[in-house]
């Protein structure tokens, strides 16, 4: 067995997928992020968010100086904001991801392509696995992850805990190739 190395999470200005672009979150994104995090349908399965836009701006200011996470606003091909996703908590060769919120009415392909981009970016950084938790009541999301090959590895009172291996990630990248037919590209 090889020694476990530690991989660094790093920010990227833009990650270009097939129909989606991930853009590094900025303070100017606070109102959009807050609108998603305080949406009654979406926030049932999130940690509580204060509805104060100044607090969200301050969180984003702190994020800008952090070096152990990447927080993205997801945009469609016309530049419209359609969601958010965050990568954080690097542990050895595994990263965690969450804060994954998609606007109401976005095509279902948005969720699939954004998950594929997260995984492809993680692999590009050198990660070989991912870990995350999903609220037990959020059945559609934990079923989504299980279809992607994630394994339930534990649970808390509120959450199911998951892990997904590099092999399962690569299998999903192939299985859902029509949603991300080419490799991601990086831009500014």
Distance between the termini: 39 Å
Number of domain units = 1
Fraction of residues in H or I helices: 25-40%
As for the CATH topology, it is Aminopeptidase
Structural class: alpha+beta
User: Which architecture per CATH?
Assistant: 3-Layer(aba) Sandwich
Assembly state (oligomeric): single chain
Uncertain regions spanning at least 5 consecutive residues: none
- The total count of strands amounts to 9
Largest sheet: 9 strands, mixed
Approximate shape: globular
Q: Give the mean pLDDT.
A: 92
* Name of the top-level CATH class: Alpha Beta
Order of helices and strands: EEHHEEEHEHEEHE
Could you give me the name of the CATH homologous superfamily?
Gcn5-related N-acetyltransferase (GNAT)
**In which order are the strands of the major sheet placed?**
7-8-6-5-4-3-2-1-9
Strand residues, percent: 25-35%
Radius of gyration: 16 Å
């Amino acid at each position: 067995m090889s020694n476990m190395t530690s991989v660094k999470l790093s920010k990227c200005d833009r990650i270009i997928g097939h129909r989606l672009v991930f853009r590094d979150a900025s303070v100017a994104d606070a109102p959009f992020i807050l609108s998603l995090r305080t949406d009654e349908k979406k926030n049932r399965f999130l940690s509580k968010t204060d509805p104060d836009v100044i607090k969200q701006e301050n969180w984003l200011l702190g994020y800008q100086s952090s070096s152990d996470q990447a927080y993205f606003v997801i945009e469609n091909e016309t530049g419209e904001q359609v969601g958010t996703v965050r990568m954080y908590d690097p542990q050895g060769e595994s990263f965690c991801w969450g804060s994954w919120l998609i606007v109401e009415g976005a095509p279902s392909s948005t969720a699939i392509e954004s998950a594929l981009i997260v995984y492809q970016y993680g692999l590009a950084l050198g990660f070989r696995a991912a870990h995350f938790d999903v609220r037990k009541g959020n059945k559609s999301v934990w079923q989504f992850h299980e279809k992607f090959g994630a394994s339930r590895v534990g649970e808390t009172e509120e959450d199911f805990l998951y892990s997904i291996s590099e092999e399962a990630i690569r299998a999903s990248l192939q299985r859902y190739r029509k949603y991300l037919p080419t490799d991601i590209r990086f831009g500014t």
